[in-house]
Design goal:
By secondary structure, the protein is α+β, with helices and mostly antiparallel strands. Helices cover 40% and strands 24% of the residues. It is built from 5 helices and 6 strands; from the N terminus they run H-H-E-E-E-E-H-H-E-E-H.
Length: 123
């Protein structure tokens, strides 16, 4: 299990660091069965060696990346939450609220859909 402390220490803005830590802690406590990793300088969660969800930070937002299949699956919920998004990620503005129900829906879908996946990414 990877500790995200070194990743978090690199976030200069204290509010951004705290919000990122809150989200990562929520995932860890809600899904204790998931492994934590840092790949491509991004904290991510995996299940039996397959990617479930990853996060990255920018000046304007916390980005959530669950893979494009999952984005399509939850697109309506993303729109309802009012988040900006692309086919690969959701942007949660630093000043906005985190929709934990949406995060749970993404994670639950990936755990279920990738239960028999033997690769890191979907093929």
């Amino acid at each position: 299990m990877t500790d995200f402390t070194s990743f978090l220490e690199k976030i200069d803005n204290e509010d951004h660091r705290e919000k990122t830590a809150e989200v990562l802690d929520w995932v860890k406590s809600t899904y204790p069965q998931l492994e934590t990793e840092i790949k491509w300088n991004q904290p991510m969660f995996t299940d039996h060696g397959t990617f479930i969800i990853g996060f990255s930070v920018s000046k304007k937002h916390l980005a959530v990346a669950p893979e494009s299949v999952t984005m399509t699956h939850v697109e309506e919920d993303i729109v309802k939450a009012g988040y900006d998004y692309t086919k690969e990620l959701v942007r949660i503005p630093w000043k906005g609220e985190v929709d934990y129900e949406l995060l749970a829906k993404m994670i639950d879908f990936n755990i279920w859909d990738k239960a028999n996946c033997e690769t890191f990414w979907r093929k």
